[in-house]
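> run fold CRC domain-containing protein
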Amino acid sequence: QWESLAREQLRQRESSEEWRLGYGTADASIASENMSRAATATGATGAPFCCECAASQGRCSADSCPCFAARRMCDEHCESARYRGDCLNQAICKCSCEVDPAKPAKNACSKSERCDCLRIKEGCSKLCACKQICKNKLKEPVKKVVKVTKPSQGCNCAKSKKQCVKKECPCRSVYEFCSSNCKCCGDCTNGPSKFHVPKHVQSCFLEHKHESSGLIVTLIGEDYIYRGDFYHDSKGEPHVEEQLVAAIYDLISKYKVDLYEIVIFVSKSPCFHQDCDPKCEVVDECKSNKACAKLLGLLLSKVRKELTKVDVKMTVKFLYPHLNRGDLYTKQGILCMLQAGIKVEPLLMKDWSAIMDWTPHVDHKGEYLQLWNNHNLDKHQAVAQSQSFINECRRALGLSMKFWVAEIHEIVKNTILHYSEIRVKCGELNDALKQLDLTATPHKIRSTPSKRRSFIDMHELRDKLLMRTSDHSKKNGSNMSVASDDAHAQAMVASFCGRSFDDGETNEIAQRIRRATANINVEIETLLEFLTHKGAIA
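> ok
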């Protein structure tokens, strides 16, 4: 059922010229390659489009764009939209609110839970199903809202055990950590080094409950970083993603902020009509429209448009897949995010440990491996299953599959540890050979170099080797060397934690390990054959 639905969606998208040219895909290389093909096909003197704005970070977002200057949206076939998907003067979404000609249109597009345009505070365009015959009609010219610079004087919150904990704190209200400019000097609950996740949010990342979910967001900009957490517990509350969208919109609509990345850690995958009440049978006719995966895609487009920066990135990392109505809806949600250009990954132990550190666990403070294993978070119901769903959706979009938890990771770990151990053993053999060279000719025997090996006093050699291993200073040095190699191997293993490999990288790693193993085996076999031959002659 999933495969047939995915194929049907792809057929619909491939019928549009924008999709064939790479518009709307999460892989920028596809769009770039298709742009070159289109340019070659049409030639340098191709047909003109509605505007010919030069490629830039804020394309079609200033009066230099004739469409923008005239306060009208760029045509849907705008050159930048067709080839690169970087036009910031496009309609962000197309609502599916249909208007009955026999009824007055004053109630059309009046409910934000039904109209996607109203939901993200965008006017409906001619591309919407309502054809702008609604209350949310896009007014032209668009009135520009003047944004203000965030205040820099800091807060005046009184010093106490729980200072700056409430939203009344001016720093919190502008989505900033407290600093040395504040009366609290940043030594408060809103200090950058004291970010704290409530226990009820942390518990969502330990155990998957039906209704509750937790979300932690990190906003990253030029000389700017801020974290916040959100929690959902009952049906009557907005989802954590809906709370996040409201908060970020409040930030970008009021203040000047240089934001370039939004990283979202969420306990379960954003919903896609799994929590609609009443449950919808046909998505396009849904009255509840609970689709947070789609909402995050709209948020990304909204942020890019408000900040006039087309390269703002968003990453969503989730621990558990949301399986309220089976895996079909879960995959649809992931597919929706990928199509919007959002980077979707499973939440791995490296990031999960940071979440645990933000609310240290009494029994496992700083050591979370046992806690991770106790909750089986690597197993089928969590990371492994999330990875499987993500890869199915990536494959449906023609993107390469990525592996964050797979056999290749275990092979890489064993390769590093085993080969490090082999290198230590080989080092010991080389040290012994150096000792052998030094004692090749006992002092009592003076002979020609060609006869030295024939007159070795084996007992003297054995005594010297034993004396070397019992020498305290050399023994300590050897142990330090081994410990250093072991620490280096462990650091290498740790560096691969959270690293994803696509099909090409997996193949390259496997080939290199095979080659190295084959070469070592050949050398060892050759040496053993030689020694066997020598032993037979003796």
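The longest helix spans residues 503-537.
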